[in-house]
Amino acid sequence: MDTPLHFPLGKPVAITLPRCYDGEAEALCALLDAGAPVIHIRKPDAPAAQVEALLRQLRDAGADMTRLTLHHDAALARRYGLGGIHLREGALREWLRQHPDKRHATAQGASAPDVQKTQTQQTQQGNDTYTPRLSTPAHSWEEAARLAPLCDYVTLSPLFDSVSKPGYLAGIDPADACRRLRRRTDETAKPIPAAIPAELPVSGSGSRIIALGGITRDNISVAWAAAFDGAAVIGAVWTTEWLGTGPQPDPKNSDRTPSSGNRPPAGTPSHDISRIDLTATLSNYQRLTRRWQAAGGTLQFISDGDPAAAEAFLQGGGRWVQLRMKDTPAEGIIARGREILALCRRYDALLIVNDDPRLAKAIGADGVHLGQNDTPPDEARIILGRQAIIGCTANTFAHIARIAQSSADYIGLGPFRYTTTKKNLSPILGEEGYRRILRQMARAGIRLPVAAIGGITEEDVPQVMACGVNGIALSGAISRAGEIAAATARFTELVAAHRTIVTP
User: Which one of 115, 211, 256, 420 is separated from 200 by 20 to 30 angstroms, measured CA to CA?
Assistant: First the structure.
């Protein structure tokens, strides 16, 4: 089993604000309940007593302490049975010197759940068996290459201009990141001239490179496209409010973040007047998660409802199924959808339903894919809630520009070529059409994840991915394959090896 930090269909790592806030323990528990794989407790502006009080509140609230990582204080992390510690290079090397037999156990191949589930018990028993996840920050490729072999994951920053640290400006080029990181899955790629003292770790080896710095809902798909193993977020998650004049949620749009409220009077002690806005913070995290998941849906299987084909796709490594059963009564779609949903849950995969958000809700699916004449995405959002993934079909840049103004999470763009699976086929885009539209999106600052669709074969994957799409949606190329699992594995590898980033 992969570690909790192995995406592509995972969720962002959340990092706390630098000081303590009222309501923070409740907010952290809510993020854990929302599926946050790891939360970093980073409190450089808070006294040690406040940090320990926060950990105590979390423990008493029944939080999964093994999914928490504490910055800098290994002793405190051990005392409360936290699953990870985040240390700068000097402290990391000192910790490894003192614990030579306990270095990044998950990176060495141990099952993360097996490692984590014993942490609290071992700590309470006083055994010298504390084996936390180890992570460390890096601010250059040279640092990342040097430090990654020492720990489970490295946070590399800043990818974009920081949201939480004014003046902390982008220092990692996404296109360069894509070229460097893609080498880990593409052994045939030519070496990139760069002053890197050692090869970056292979993604499957345990050590991960996590993007950090200025990541928002609007650019998180770029972090995925750049081949990072995950994304860590701070400013784009947290919303605080001034007590007494805090923001009010918008009841008309469950996906809309409340306004930040009035600023407190000058000179008011900050620790007395601010608290975490739980509703807005949870909404922020869910939107970030949807965009990351949508970007990570590199290979989408458009299923006609055959459970055997869907399971073979999942066995081959596919993690995204779209159920499309045209001309089938609703009862039949719901029954078959629930059957395939059970398969998706078994493989930690996502299921979305074509056309109808109400059917998606009845099935319990992860979202819906809407055509041009289906339910508008904002209406689907009201039906399905802020946690659902909503995709929309587009055939032109004008379609995309309209969709970008809605609460949709990704675009299905096509057709690439003629396909028999569509009765009313839109004009063929081809490679040039994809390149033109992706460049238009880049110039307009639209960073919605894009999945290519329409008659795509294995031979097409390199050129389609080179256009800058995030992934590919397939129907006949999977369902008609002699060995569906093997075909899925080949497509997945091709997509990973050839993804790229389009610049304006």
Answer: 115
Same fold, 13-187+194-292 and 297-498: yes
373 within 8 A of 393, measured Cβ to Cβ: no
Sorted by where each begins, the domain ranges of the chain are 13-187+194-292, 297-498
* Residues 486, 174: Cα–Cα separation, whole Å: 31
- The pTM is what? 0.84
CATH node for 13-187+194-292: 3.20.20.70
What is the rounded CA–CA span in Å between residue 24 and residue 56? Answer: 12
H or E element, residue 389: strand 389-394
Nearest to 81 by CA among 54, 108, 59, 106: 59
Closest by CA to 240, choosing from 32, 34, 24, is 24
Spatial CA neighbour of 132 closest among 172, 88, 176, 74: 74
The angle formed by the CA atoms of residues 317, 386 and 256, to the nearest 5 degrees, is: 135
pLDDT tens figures, 363-417 = 999 999 999 889 999 999 999 999 999 999 999 999 999 999 999 999 999 999 8
Distances from the Cα of 213 to the Cα of 145, 220, 234, 346, angstroms:
19, 10, 8, 33
- For residues 55-72, b (16+ Cβ closer than 10 Å) or e, as one string? beebbeeebbbbbbbbbb
Backbone angles phi, psi at 383, to 5 degrees: -70, -45
Q: Which of 396, 353, 397, 345 is nearest to 375 (CA)?
A: 353
* Alpha-carbon span 494 to 486, nearest angstrom: 13
What are the pLDDT digits (tens) for 50-74? 999 999 999 999 999 999 999 999 9
3-state secondary structure 75-143: HHHHHCCCCEEECCHHHHHHHHHHCCCCCCCCCCCCCHHHHHCCHHHHHHHCCCCCCCEEEEEECCHHH
Check if the beta carbon of residue 229 is closer than 8 Å to that of residue 5. Answer: yes
CA distances from 397 to 28, 414, 424 (A): 39, 11, 19
Nearest to 153 by CA among 317, 293, 7: 7
| pLDDT greater than 90 at residue 280 | yes
Is domain 297-498 given the CATH code 3.20.20.70 in the classification?
yes
31, 279 Cβ separation under 8 angstroms: no
Helix (H) or strand (E) holding 276: strand 274-276
